[in-house]
Amino acid sequence: xxxxxxxxxxxxxxxxxxxxxxxxxxxxxxxxxxxxxxxxxxxxxxxxxxxxxxxxxxxxxxxxxxxxxxxxxxxxxxxxxxxxxxxxxxxxxxxxxxxxxxxxxxxxxxxxxxxxxxxxxxxxxxxxxxxxxxxxxxxxxxxxxxxxxxxxxxxxxxxxxxxxxxxxxxxxxxxxxxxxxxxxxxxxxxxxxxxxxxxxxxxxxxxxxxxxxxxxxxxxxxxxxxxxxxxxxxxxxxxxxxxxxxxxxxxxxxxxxxxxxxxxxxxxxxxxxxxxxxxxxxxxxxxxxxxxxxxxxxxxxxxxxxxxxxxxxxxxxxxxxxxxxxxxxxxxxxxxxxxxxxxxxxxxxxxxxxxxxxxxxxxxxxxxxxxxxxxxxxxxxxxxxx
Length: 386
Known about the structure:
The chain folds into three domains: about 5-30 and about 220-270, no CATH class; about 35-155, NADH Oxidase (3-Layer(aba) Sandwich), CATH 3.40.109; about 165-220 and about 285-365, NADH Oxidase. It is about 40% helix and about 15% strand. The protein has helices at about 5-10, 15-20, 20-25, 35-40, 45-50, 50-60, 100-120, 180-190, 200-220, 225-230, 235-240, 250-260, 265-270, 275-290, 305-320, 340-350; strands at about 70-75, 80-85, 120-130, 145-150, 195-200, 235, 245-250, 290-300, 325-330, 360-365, 385. The protein has a five-stranded mixed beta sheet. Strands 5-8-10-9 form a four-stranded antiparallel beta sheet.
């Protein structure tokens, strides 16, 4: 276990800096984990150029999704079509026990796929859950079927230009820069089928900051729930390259700790450890610096509602990127496990969500620093029956 003494010795400069080669370690970045973002931004060649489905998939895999588990599997066995499935090994049964958030992530994937196809001169028919809606969990049935048709009238969505610039930003936001109503109103215009709202009122934002942090504490101090997150943390650039999914834990200090053997998944899971104690303020700063909040709800909570909410959410996020805004989902209070029930009910009241409606997404907004994108598996690694 990392002790306070060894941690402070490292921070202070001591033995580790000389032994580990501090300059190299502190500037180390993943070698391959972020390559899919670069590939999508390049002109298509090879199979990406000859098969529009692959071109579209190279963008679709950049979609935001819970814990960055990238739960998509694309079946290309049918000409001019893609069947989308959920990889059962990439579900999150503790934080997402009914797969609602997973379906939202697959909805984001669906919208980016359709956008990319349009940009290549194709229209796409999106058929949600063509073999029925699986309840209460997703199963082996397809989530969606996409049919591609060459279309000279296909229009490029203005939001598409922001796909490779979109980030989920967990850093501190600039508390000296308020978010203007006009930016938030333009952002919400991108939403097509969900109900959406926002607030930048100082008093209400302050209340939602504290409330959101209290929901985060429930997650952190519910052992089985927090352990689910720890299990998919990728600590340092080497782990990120080996497994370009999950929750990236990186940065110069993390590289130093990892190289010195002073950080482990066991330490991260132990809420009494110095590793957890030192990391807690780094988590909390994102809650303390939220400058506005936005949310989306749907009248029902069918699988089709969830998929449509995902399609709307990625549009909202791309619109925020176009406004120069940083965005981060605060999903804790929306999670459906027993210990979160009080917060789940309370946030609906705070946001005046109608009875019977479902709060699908809740995000913080502000102006943040430039950050690197999340790791991704290459698009062709998620294809079956090509």
